[in-house]
Amino acid sequence: MDKYIEMIRIRFLMMLAYRTNYYTGILIYSINIGAYYFLWSAIYSDKPSIQGMSIEQMTTYVAVSWMARAFYFNNIDREIAMEIKEGKVAVELIRPYSYLGMKTMQGLGEGIFRLLFLSLPGMIIVIFLFPLHFSTNVSTWIYFALSITLSFIINSELNLLAGVVTFFTLNNEGLLRAKRFIIDLFSGLILPISFYPAWAQEVMKYFPFQGISYIPSMIVTESFQGQAVIDGLLFQLVWSVMLLIPIRLLWRAAKKQLVIQGG
Amino acid sequence: MFYVSVFFQYMAQYIKTKLQYRTDLIVEFVSDLMFQAVNLIFILVVFGHTQLLHGWTRDEILFIYGFFLVPYAVFGAFFNIWDFNERYIVRGEMDRVLTRPVHSLFQIILERMELESLLGGVTGIIIMIYASARLHLVFHWYDVLVFIVFVLGGALVYAGVFISLATISFWSDARSSIMPMMYNISNYGRYPIDIYNRFIRYILTWILPFAFVGVYPSAYFLGKTEWYGYAFLTPVMGLIFFIIAVFLWNAGVKRYRGAGN
Amino acid sequence: MVNAIEVEKLRKEFKSYSSRAGLIGAFRDLFTRNYKIIRAVNDISFTVKQGEMVGYIGENGAGKSTTIKMLTGILTPTSGKVIVNGMIPHKEREAFVRTIGVVFGQRSQLWWDIAVQESFRLLKKVYRVSDRDYKEHMEHVIDTLDIGPLLDKPVRKLSLGQRMRCELAAALIHNPPLLFLDEPTIGLDVLVKLKIRKFLKEINEKYNTTILLTTHDISDIEALCERVIMLDEGKIIYDGSLQRLKANWGEGKQLQFTFANEIRLDALYALTNGLPVKWRKGEQANAWVAHVSPSLVPEVISRVVSGYDIQDMNINEISTEEIIRNIYEEGVVHG
């Protein structure tokens, strides 16, 4: 376990060297939140609520979604694809640790860093700029913390999956871009899932994507109440366990192929 | 004349290069389409819940978005030098450019051209045709010329802003994240300007005039007479910002320090 | 005869920024930054005549590349006069660069993904070379450099030696009267080096092309250049013929002894006490080299042989490389 914690620490230090990037990162995220804030204000204009969400809830939803993204977002899919392409994975496999586990820990190190240096200060700035409303209910925040952790797990698992799949495909770039497109659209980052037409919502129930952004943001804005919170968390939990299966299978197949091809 | 023939020479080489990597080309096409689709889906879904956005209808918003895609595509094809600092300053490619007898900015534009971006313009035109059919818009023969002038104006606004930002590399060797920031700001121009507050409206009109890439010129075609004044400013703003950029560029080249010093 | 290059009191200064430590330091750097001014080229003056081949040498950071970049119009000088081919490079850049050819050994002029001849065709257009001139001149160049079979290959598939020959041809498409070569033979094998040197001599004779060459490989200079300009810390420390440099610094011989046993430097100096001899450690174990004037050779040998057991001994001329190393170590040039 020590070595994994060490990996988190190393990543953290690496990120610290590039900290100036994060000052502008905060600005970029604020700009995006601003764009959607104005858009949503115009969309609501005189409507008190759409799909059960008030304008305050929606603004808060947008702000939290973006700042949470800073935490769960990482590029380990690209890193894995790159290391496979350059043949570095073969070297990694001799090392006495789980390659995918190590990648996840790197992602976690990055995530914690961004949480502290981008999301939290960014949130403070955004609170001053836009009329946000946060609950004072402690249990909401506990649920949110749980939910955001599960977000990280689901997103990282999808990244691992995409990274490993590049082992079997010819054009990695296309695959990774398609994945990003799907996550942008169906995670709930730019639009709450409840806004989609009923049939689309029905389809999305069978995919893990809303576990990345929609569920934690709905929890923290208290748009989910009572049973809906528990259902949401269960949804995330089930997916974070289920996704392990295809990762395991594909990784085993990839390793087998690696041994045959010699990297 | 010399510059035109050099332009076509570069273009021929470009096409030859791209044809060597055909699958990459298709992937780029498809992923471009996907990113345009994200915004399109956003607009369509939102208008499932409201009829008007600050007095603008769904089809008007679609028209603006469709128009925006055209100058943006022209910009993307010719002026998108976002990696200027990395590629030309840090790696020192600027040295090579400066030893050739063609204006350095022109050379870099030719080297970084990405003609496949123009496909986004086609998507934009299709969206505009769809929206204008539903809006029963009537066009005159000269509207085609106005359209071309406005598209060029909008592309030059973009080009002016991004080239000016690229010239920062001549003065400061620190890596900056201003470029990605600007891409995010430019998204504001895709929606009606009157949904923003006065401060942002002012910035989008006079400082970072991205409103001239989407809303203002579109207002002309949508027959929104109250915005005509701004609409006809589009080519003027484009020229002003582009000239400023070229001026900054020429001043910057004098300050160029070379790589590896 | 017209001067190809005239440089007078040429100076280039750079600001060198340093960043402060820590988070607060990084924040302060956003507003004010510490810097000091570094003078990379310090008031140098020289002229090069049309048709000369000049070696421009110096250690890393001596100011070689900075000078070349000012001469080619890439950098604007801080002060001083620079006139190349009758023009001020950075002022009339586009007209000026049509009269020069540049090869940067570590940077490609050619387009990576397209065939070599496509790059040539593009450059032909850029330099506005007529079909007739191109045919007449380039056929010869392609022939001499033996790159005919490479022309339809993409640059990324060429070996370094093949690429370098193509680079050289690309720099000569417009048959410039002045050629700048920055480390043209870096990393090349001996055969390719020989081919390139032969070619450079040829175009120099045929077209009276002026060539300014920077290199770390002294054998390039020995093979090509009558004249060398030596740079140290931004100043010219020697400008003159290679002959004279050798005559002043290279008179004398190197005596290389391999001793049977370990020996100390002061023991050697004690042995040659009273004679103007310089000792330094050789490359092998127990090997020592004495730098002596020719008349003293017998005396030194007899003292050493009578004093210690010798396994091997050589008498050598002093190499140019040795001379240059001596100059940099002592920092003075007489003559």
Layout of helices and strands, plus pairs?
The complex is a heterotrimer of chains A (263), B (261) and C (335).
Chain A: H1 2-17, H2 20-44, E1 49-50, E2 53-54, H3 55-72, H4 76-85, H5 89-94, H6 99-129, H7 138-165, H8 172-186, H9 198-204, H10 214-220, H11 227-242, H12 244-261
Antiparallel strand pairs in A: 1-2
Helix pairs in contact in A: 1-6, 2-3, 2-6, 3-6, 3-10, 4-7, 6-7, 7-10, 7-11, 7-12, 10-11
Chain B: H1 2-20, H2 22-46, E1 52-53, E2 56-57, H3 58-78, H4 84-90, H5 93-98, H6 104-111, H7 118-135, H8 142-166, H9 168-171, H10 178-186, H11 198-207, H12 215-221, H13 228-255
Antiparallel strand pairs in B: 1-2
Helix pairs in contact in B: 2-3, 3-7, 3-8, 3-12, 8-13, 12-13
Chain C: E1 3-18, H1 22-29, E2 34-49, E3 53-58, H2 64-71, E4 79-84, H3 93-97, E5 100-104, H4 116-126, H5 131-145, H6 160-171, E6 178-182, H7 190-207, E7 210-214, H8 218-224, E8 227-232, E9 235-241, H9 242-249, E10 253-259, H10 265-271, E11 278-281, E12 287-292, H11 297-307, E13 310-317, H12 320-330
Approximate shape of chain A? globular
Any low-confidence stretches of chain C, pLDDT <50, length ≥5?
none
Characterize the largest beta sheet of chain C: strand count, sense, and whether it forms a barrel: 6 strands, mixed
- State the secondary-structure class of chain C: alpha/beta
Mean pLDDT of chain A: 87
How many H/I helical runs of chain C? 12
Main sheet makeup of chain A: 2 strands, antiparallel
Largest interface between protein chains, with number of residues from each side: A-B, 34 and 36 residues
Note the run of SSEs of chain A as H and E.
HHEEHHHHHHHHHH
Q: Could you tell me the radius of gyration of chain C in angstroms?
A: 25 Å
Question: What's the number of domains of chain C?
Answer: 2
The first-to-last residue Cα distance of chain A is: 28 Å
- Give the overall silhouette of chain C: globular
Strand order of the largest sheet of chain A: 1-2
Report the helical percentage of chain A. Answer: over 70%
CATH top level assignment of the largest domain in chain C: Alpha Beta
Beta strands of chain C, count: 13
Cα distance spanning the termini of chain C: 26 Å
